[in-house]
Amino acid sequence: MAEIKNKKRGKLIVFSAPSGSGKTTIVRHLLKQEELNLEFSISATSREKRGQEVNGKDYYFLDIADFKNRIRNDEFLEWEEVYRDNFYGTLKTEIERIWAKGKNVIFDIDVSGGLRIKRKFPEETLAIFVKPPDLNELIKRLKRRGEESEDKISMRVAKAPAELATAPLFDVIVVNKDLEDALEKSYQLVSDFIKK
What are the pLDDT digits (tens) for 21-72? Predict the structure, then answer.
């Protein structure tokens, strides 16, 4: 069991998916629903800031040496080297911070990280996999975003089949064919889980 200092535990809501599946849109929607009492878990990363990103709001930006040092010191609930020298992870202090406020934690996280959290906190975690209708739709969505180079999109698409193969390991799969349906289903799943 991961050592989290706070004894007052809320729920952990994990949303994982290949890039372009719509998980971030769903998470943002759920964060606006005050009755769910959710707070977003801000991930740490070793990558450079993009655009208007803000440290402590979008990510905790750490240099590679600091990130690796924190790994050695067991400061992460989960972490992964997603791409070469691009580390992402969840600091234990982030969960402690949110639980100390009496809130439930919601994650927008890669599949490996999501499954690690589920393994460490099986009772407190609802792990939801957001699945695109198909790979072609995923590619269209990534291109429509217009945020990344063709190379980066190709890297994300190449990773997608392995990520999609993990879907059965999650508690629930939400197929995001129609966004309104996906938002409604996700809300109901989270609402029911929090009431348990």
Answer: 999 999 999 999 999 999 999 999 999 898 899 999 999 999 999 999 999 9
Model's pTM, two decimal places?
A: 0.88
What residue ranges do the domains of the chain occupy? Answer: 12-195
Q: What is the CATH T-level fold of the domain 12-195, as seen in this structure? A: Rossmann fold (3.40.50)
Q: Which two tokens stand for residue 81?
A: 């080297």
Instruction: Give the whole-angstrom CA distance, residue 157 versus residue 166.
Output: 15
- Phi and psi torsions of 90, nearest 5°: -115, 115
Cβ–Cβ under 8 Å, residues 39 and 106? yes
Per DSSP (E only), the strands in the chain are: 12-16, 38-40, 44-45, 60-61, 76-83, 86-91, 104-108, 125-131, 172-175
Confidence of residue 149 (pLDDT cuts 50, 70, 90): confident
171 with 130: CB under 8 angstroms?
no
**CA nearest to 86, candidates 3, 28, 159:** 159
For 113-151, give one letter per residue: b (16+ CB within 10 A) or e.
bbbbbbeebeebbbbbbbbbeeeeebbebbeeeeeeeee
- What is the spatial distance between Cα 117 and Cα 169, in angstroms, rounded to a whole number? 12
